[in-house]
Amino acid sequence: MRISQFKNDQARDRFQAAYERTLAQLWPGERTALDLPTAFGTTRVYRTGPQHGEPIVLLPGSGGNALMWHRYIDTLARHRPVIAVDTVGEPGASVQSAPIGDGRDGAAWLDELLAALDVTDAQVVGCSYGGWLALNHQIHHPGRVASLTLLDPAGFAGFGPRFYAWLIAGGLAAAAPRPLRPRLARLVGNSTVLEGELMGLMRASMGFRRALPVPPVFSDEELRRLSVPALFLLGARSALHDSREVADRIGGLVPSARVEVVPGAGHALPTDRPDLVADRILHTVGR
Fold first, then answer.
1. Rounded to 5°, angle at Cα 256 from 252 and 61
2. How confident is the model over 93-105, as pLDDT tens digits?
3. Contacts (Cβ under 8 Å, ≥6 apart) of 3
């Protein structure tokens, strides 16, 4: 089984230079960087905000890292400690050393990370793939997380042609001349392409070979095991799944969960509706 890594030293060095440059541009404020060992590799996290209180732990989507949350850091850190994570196996400052083969492995990695951080009441926020990891962690390692906020999480439908077409269209829009991008972003339903610095970092990561599992669909039995307060925020126009069907399924299996389908938003929910998402995160954790 393979691990995620750069194809050569030149690709790694090029990405690292772009990463440090983007970090300085998007997160110029105070932060503490920690590199924490786990059985699956060393994980980079950034801590900021108050010294005490239950932290908000931010897990990025596929292909992303802690920097995807740059618009949220200041707002959230005014209320709680914030821990933004570079997921092992994604392009960032973490370094994978052992394969992550399935959801159980992903859950074990996250549990080791939270233990290394000495976190026992985390308020975990997961976007897309990060939401899938957060759900797996709660299913397989309950007891360390106090609440979940899940932004259009993976694990509720297979990755079909519509989703891959959305990804490809977004990539093409991001490569277009800057004046054309707002119109193209609306056309393809992907506001992430307007994040110029992050799109530059994405291009710098083309030499990264990602080797993480494709999220399978959660079973009914797995979802019934969710016991902590959970908010599912779903983009009404999501290319990943039929959000109304997902909402109905969650409502039938997890009565304690809250589900909100956000009109006009797609799978790029954090960039489509950042004010709404920040408000819902703070409401879930308790300001």
1. 85
2. 999 999 999 999 9
3. 41, 89, 96, 97, 98, 99, 211
